[in-house]
């Protein structure tokens, strides 16, 4: 039997093998190095070097297959410097090496090059590369991919790629990672400065007189330098340092205005911590969705429930029930409903009001989207565009969206004031187009009394400040008679050009109750535009009077206290005298 088996093996080797020994990649051990070059036309030029070792049960390997994430083109394959036949079947490359097969326990080297499309998309200022990786057998450390991006694509703005390393050469960037891993990369030249010329329109239709606030770009997200502001009455600062322009509209009044300036985003955005839920939370149960599900399932259920309004604009934010009854939802409705649902599911979420471009468009428009906190940190999510265009806008990096301000669930839409608003016309540039010499601070400060001034009594003192310059300013410090005034009296004042505000000055008095006559009050008020400071000296001559009525009352009160003390002391003395007897 032993000799018969040996004879059959020899027969198979001599006569059968050349016709049936077809071994694919999963039957050999192999290593690979891949270099992916991003070309100017956004195609990926892929060069792969394979080192195959025949460890199969066959004496010869005469074919090799590669599975690709996309249909390739321009394929060239070589073995030992000689071109070899290639056959394409959908996204699989079949390479014929029968003319030079790899023998048992031998090593063969194959070079393959080809192009694929559909993994790079370019916008106005940046390009996104979304590479899914290869499906490979064998040990991951035996398969390495390097993605090369020429410096003409700009800087590496964002990288999400597991186990990746970045090196910078004179030609560009090289990102190395295991071949089985995917990579999301963003390259571009985001302008250092965004020149903003935004027009707003507020129509107070069918309402009584109302106050409105329009938020200006949050300085927690970047630096905004103001060129001009029109249409507003005065400025306002909140506890977090966010700036607003404020106005009061009469019933049926329409007001237009502009915000012109430059916005320079910080390289690293910081977001506030999650705050309490708001009143809109109460209606979230009307959504009738499973809030205990995963975020992706909640998101899908909401998208199935809502319908984007094609008449684009940031309309008044309604409650959830009113919004669903209407049948069509605006971007702010989407943001409101998603935030309420996510909050109920315990997912920290913020609404972002800002300006952004839409897919296929170059101009910026007012918009609202979300910031959602995940295990990997805060990401941007735009459910309105998800529904409108049918593809996900949930990405960690959105350079085409400029956050204007971040609001919480409990903020009123009236404080956002975008009832009827035109798209913002935004021009971007690498360098400043505004002449900084035009930006001048010219502020006047004047002390005055609103009532008679008495000695030893807090003076009815006020400070009237007027912004005569061309830039908005805030008050940094007020000092009167060597005393710094409590900042809470003025921290919410933000003066737009041409506006005047009156600030109460408390805690200032002349201590001598018997002083009457002239008294000179001196001090200063310090202003800042965010970059520079300016000081306006203050002085006021006042006529002090003695408040005889208060003085008589205080004298009488003092005498009563003295009499009471004397009576108590006398009683104690009498008690002590009796005990000593």
TrEMBL record:
Keywords: Membrane, Transmembrane, Transmembrane helix. It comes from the Bacteria. The chain crosses the membrane at residues 551-569. SMART domains: TGc (SM00460). This is Transglutaminase-like superfamily protein. It holds the Pfam family Transglut_core. InterPro entries: Papain-like_cys_pep_sf (IPR038765), Transglutaminase-like (IPR002931). Residues 323-385 form the Transglutaminase-like domain. The lineage of its organism: Bacteria, Candidatus Dojkabacteria.
């Amino acid at each position: 039997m032993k000799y018969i088996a040996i004879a059959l093996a020899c027969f198979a080797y001599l006569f059968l093998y050349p016709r049936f020994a077809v071994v694919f990649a999963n039957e050999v051990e192999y290593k690979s190095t891949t270099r992916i070059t991003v070309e100017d036309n956004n195609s990926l030029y892929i060069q792969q070097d394979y080192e195959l070792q025949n460890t199969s049960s066959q004496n010869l390997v005469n074919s090799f297959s590669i599975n690709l994430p996309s249909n390739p083109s321009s394929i060239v394959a070589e073995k030992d410097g000689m071109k070899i036949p290639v056959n394409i079947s959908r996204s699989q490359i079949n390479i014929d090496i029968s003319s030079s097969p790899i023998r048992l326990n031998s090593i063969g080297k194959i070079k393959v090059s080809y192009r694929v499309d559909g993994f790079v998309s370019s916008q106005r200022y940046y390009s996104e590369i979304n590479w899914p990786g290869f499906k490979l057998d064998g040990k991951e450390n035996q398969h390495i991919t390097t993605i090369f991006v020429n410096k003409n694509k700009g800087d590496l703005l964002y990288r999400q790629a597991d186990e990746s390393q970045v090196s910078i050469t004179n030609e560009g960037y090289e990102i190395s990672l295991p071949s089985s891993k995917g990579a999301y990369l963003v390259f571009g030249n985001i302008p250092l400065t965004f020149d903003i010329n935004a027009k707003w329109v507020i129509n107070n239709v069918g309402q009584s007189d109302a106050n409105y606030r329009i938020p200006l770009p949050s300085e927690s997200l970047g630096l905004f330098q103001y060129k001009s502001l029109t249409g507003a009455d005065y400025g306002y600062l909140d506890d977090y340092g966010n700036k607003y322009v404020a106005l009061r509209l009469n019933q049926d009044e329409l007001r237009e205005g502009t915000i012109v300036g430059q916005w320079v985003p910080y390289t690293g955005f910081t977001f506030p911590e999650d705050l309490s839920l708001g009143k809109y939370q109460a209606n979230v149960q009307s959504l009738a969705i499973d809030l205990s599900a995963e975020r992706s399932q909640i998101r899908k259920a909401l998208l199935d429930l809502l319908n984007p309004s094609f008449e684009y604009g940031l309309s008044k934010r309604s409650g959830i029930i009113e919004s669903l009854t209407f049948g069509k939802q605006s971007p702010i409705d989407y943001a409101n409903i998603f935030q309420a649902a996510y909050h109920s599911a315990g997912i920290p979420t913020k609404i972002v009001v800002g300006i952004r471009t839409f897919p296929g468009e170059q101009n910026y428009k007012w918009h609202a989207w979300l910031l959602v906190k995940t295990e990997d940190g805060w990401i941007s999510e735009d459910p309105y565009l998800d529904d409108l265009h049918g593809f996900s806008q949930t990405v960690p990096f959105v350079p085409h969206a400029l956050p204007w301000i971040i609001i919480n669930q409990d903020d009123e839409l009236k404080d956002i004031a975008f009832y009827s608003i035109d798209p913002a016309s935004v021009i971007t540039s690498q360098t400043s187009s505004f002449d900084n010499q035009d930006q001048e601070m010219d502020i006047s400060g004047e002390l005055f009394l609103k009532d008679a001034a008495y000695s030893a009594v807090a003076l009815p003192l006020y400070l009237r400040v007027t912004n005569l310059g061309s830039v908005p300013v805030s008050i940094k410090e007020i000092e009167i008679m060597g005393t710094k005034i409590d900042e809470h009296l003025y921290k919410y004042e933000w003066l737009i050009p041409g506006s005047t505000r009156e600030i109460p000055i408390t805690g200032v008095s002349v201590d001598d109750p018997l002083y009457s006559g002239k008294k000179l009050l001196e001090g200063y008020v310090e202003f800042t535009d965010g970059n520079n400071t300016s000081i306006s000296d203050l002085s006021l001559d006042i006529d002090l009077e003695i408040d005889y009525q208060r003085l008589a009352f205080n004298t009488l009160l003092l005498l009563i206290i003295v009499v009471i003390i004397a009576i108590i002391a006398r009683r104690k003395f009498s008690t002590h005298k009796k005990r000593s007897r």
